[in-house]
Amino acid sequence: MDFSEEKTNQFDLSTGDLMASLLMVFVLCLIGTMLQLQEEFDDKSKVAERYKELQSQIYIDLQEEFKDDLKEWGAEIDKEQLIFRFTEPDILFRVGRSEVKQEFKDILQSFFPRYIKVLSGKIYKDHIEEIRVEGHTSLEGQNNMTDQQAYFYNMKLSQDRTRSVLSFVLEQLDENVYQWTKLRTTANGLSSVKPIAENDTEANRKLNRRVEFRIKTDAEQQIREMLLYGEH
């Protein structure tokens, strides 16, 4: 018998077994990684689905609460972004001024306590991350202003207006919801950077002069926490 040939065959078999074992380990690791990624994807999908359901239900409840007021107030509710939008600038503020007009105060007195009653209810209150009061202007500033001057003029004007609105609406709340609301509500002046129409006609510029109440839920925070957890 050729012992050298037998040793070579034994060595070849051992090498083959080792390669097969390594391949099996690699496949198992790959499967484990894929299962983990699938689980993370499923978790994110569940959060996204819950967010859509939550957003849809908030919209339905707001629509039901204010369906008889929207037309009279010159307001609308954006379902996709959960924005309650006031789009009649003539009743909001005087030109170039930040004081809330009495007509808009009358609307806000009715609107805001009912709005907060919906959002601070048992179903939603733990999922509302922020209520943003946003002020928007059209593109133009005062006479002979450059584009940059008009931008900063409108930035200050929109900021002053949202602070005026926020100050007024907080005064309309009962003590039992005041603290919850104050901790979540912010005033945000955005100048002319987020138009909803071209600034090419007076009718379109009028649409861009508006006040919005925007809801942010905790869905983004939940996804961020999941991503951080997945890194550890």
TrEMBL record:
Q: Please name the PANTHER family in this protein's record.
A: LIPOPROTEIN YIAD-RELATED, STATOR ELEMENT OF FLAGELLAR MOTOR COMPLEX
Q: Name one GO cellular component term.
A: membrane
- The domain of life for this entry's organism is Bacteria
PROSITE patterns assigned to the protein according to its UniProt record, in alphabetical order: OMPA_2
Protein's UniProt name: Chemotaxis protein MotB
> Which organism does this record belong to?
Polaribacter butkevichii
Q: Which UniProt keywords apply?
A: Membrane, Transmembrane, Transmembrane helix
Annotated OmpA-like domain ranges read 80-219
**Membrane-spanning residues:** 18-37
Indicate yes or no for the key word Kinase.
no
